[in-house]
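Illustration 12: RNA polymerase subunit sigma-70.
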Amino acid sequence: MPQTEVTLAPNKWIDNYADYLFNYAVVRVNNSDLAKDLVQETFFAGLKSAKNFQGKSTERTWLVSILKRKVIDHYRKINSKKGQAEVRMNFYNDGENEGSWLEERVPQNWDNASEKAIENEELRSQIDVCIDNLPEKYGMVFRMKTIQEFETEEICKELDISASNLWVIIHRARTQLRKCMEDNWFNN
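Figure caption equivalent — predicted structure in token form:
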């Protein structure tokens, strides 16, 4: 059966794919503003490289592959020393006084659910601290595999490592995370 050629329709991307791409991105970066920026960058990159589209996949699959690259680039940037400094500088412009409430984090009535949410947020924060304290490569591999749910082959290709090396890194990262969480969360 002959394969039909898929052509791009950039004028329909926002209507057809923006919500899907946003949901895909926000799960991986856990920040809605950043997810919106990454989707916008994906659309721009798609427009710039439209001539390279070969029609071997659907339009959505092609855009998702661009978005995946944008997410990887984002994590590469923040995992580099320069990127970490930029993120800290942009986020902490004026100490604790800078910024405003995000709509979903405006204080609500205090009840047991609020207490659990605070505990979950504190736990999550501690996990993030422990991941940040991993060696750079361990943290990157752990995030890509466990949080962002990239496929093993994709991580290996992207980071130029073997599958067995990836699993050794994952094992070592989990061991170090367990120790960090035991020291800083469970034994407090």
